[in-house]
Amino acid sequence: MARFIESHSCFDCQCKSSIFNFLSEPELGLINQNRYEVSFKAGEIMFKQGTPSPHFLCLTSGLAKLYIEGYGKNLILSLVRPVEYIMGPGIYTDNRHHYSAAAVEDSTACLVDVNSFKQLIRTNPDFADEFIRRISMMTIFNFEQVVSLTQKQMHGRIADVMFYLSEKIYTGNPFEMTISRQDLADLSGMSKESAIRILKEFKDEGILHIDGSTVHILNPQQLKQISQTG
Amino acid sequence: MARFIESHSCFDCQCKSSIFNFLSEPELGLINQNRYEVSFKAGEIMFKQGTPSPHFLCLTSGLAKLYIEGYGKNLILSLVRPVEYIMGPGIYTDNRHHYSAAAVEDSTACLVDVNSFKQLIRTNPDFADEFIRRISMMTIFNFEQVVSLTQKQMHGRIADVMFYLSEKIYTGNPFEMTISRQDLADLSGMSKESAIRILKEFKDEGILHIDGSTVHILNPQQLKQISQTG
DNA sequence: TTTCTCCATTGACAAATATCAATGATCGGT
DNA sequence: ACCGATCATTGATATTTGTCAATGGAGAAA
């Protein structure tokens, strides 16, 4: 389970989300006072879909997955790298989590009181603008995702996920894929077996080099082509 | 194409979206001054994905569809009934439309200047809160949609869309389905032929009564069951 | 080291879904 | 009423994708 860890201060935090740069010193103080730090081991659930959400979460180290628990299987909405906050649409509606979050790697996070945050949205227009901008970016990401998931075939979806992992999550090529094959399947909306099969195909065709959890995109052009032809 | 029509005033508009009740009289005046009315015939495009979005749209009569133009086919994100505004995530990011909108029935709408709106978000916290709340509601709707589209089989997806049409769009049972079969397919993420076939199956099983564009959900319990079992 | 468990992999098969082609129905314009 | 165009329907078939079952492999616990 989650463990409380030594508490620092938001003021000298090297790892606070850049949205907090829009806050004045006293405003940041409000956040700092209503905050505590927790650590999670890989695999542990951070919060669960359906439960109340009095706090939002700011990931300070590790890697987390956000996923919707659907009909028998999960859909991973996104992976989250530090430093980023995790705040769902329930904050402004029913105060419930609309997706679950779990640590993929050992992680640490700050839990921050939601009401303090919402108060700052009301009083600091720059902060509010930035918040809305970030929500909008997530919405755009969701749009791209739903189009990929509903209109592309499996090869295109796996290609998309490979680029996502390489460019956004592990920021490298080759990269060490710390998510499981099941997670890969949940990201691309298919069965685990299908995901594995397509990975193998890409390997056999020389598009990817795969050795256990290490993945190297050998032929990005061809992979991009596969992404676009669906 | 779109036609300009006689301009009224936001102040005595019986059909303004309820979010504007959060505005004071002078604030509503700002909206009123930067607004014009347009009418669209059924089938006409209101705005197109990828184009700049200096205005947002407030639908005052008719029925519109919001759809993403994907890889060879469209995905309908939602249908919009008056009175509701239509504002995409581009407003706060790249000032582009991230989906297209088209009139399904003959429609009228007000086009409102985006900057006036954004200015009010900065100065009126209640208005901003309500705006964020509505964005959040849409996000939650998108989540439900993506789970339905990616995790349910065709029968379940058609069942979901039938409830959506009956409860949210046409608010009646039976209802006159003014969208085409292709639209139905684009709403449920399948081919037109598959959508028609499942409609016919439901008809043969006595779950729906279908006569041309008139649909009557005869057995909501069984349809709900189909929705849930995927 | 041995065992156990979980995750990954593979193959065979079944189910779901799309595509293609043909036909029927409907509706506005003449 | 007639015509042309678009939309709806249906059947046959091909493709995509999932499921099931079996096996392999790596790491944790004894």
Q: What is the count of helical runs of chain A?
A: 7
What is the count of structural domains of chain A?
Answer: 2
Structural class of chain A, by secondary structure, is alpha+beta
Succession of helices and strands of chain A: EHEEEEEEHHHEHHEEH
Structural account:
With 230 residues, chain A is α+β, with helices and mostly antiparallel strands. Chain A folds into 2 domains: 3-130, Jelly Rolls (Sandwich), CATH 2.60.120.10; 152-228, Winged helix-like DNA-binding domain superfamily/Winged helix DNA-binding domain (Arc Repressor Mutant, subunit A), CATH 1.10.10.10. Helices cover 40% and strands 26% of the residues of chain A. Chain A is built from 7 helices and 10 strands. Chain A has helices spanning 25-33, 114-123, 125-151, 154-169, 181-188, 192-204, 220-228, and strands spanning 3-4, 35-40, 45-47, 55-69, 74-80, 84-86, 100-113, 175-176, 208-211, 214-217. In chain A, strands 1, 2, 3, 4, 5, 6 and 7 form a 7-stranded antiparallel beta sheet that branches. Chain A has a 3-stranded antiparallel beta sheet with strand order 8-10-9. In chain A, strand 4 and strand 5 form a beta hairpin. In chain A, helix 4 (154-169) crosses helix 7 and helix 5 crosses helix 6. The longest helix of chain A has 27 residues, at 125-151. Chain A is elongated, with a radius of gyration of 19 Å. The first copy, chain A, starts with a strand and ends with a helix. At the A-B interface, helix 2 and helix 3 of A face helix 2 and helix 3 of B. The structure holds a DNA duplex (30 and 30 nucleotides).
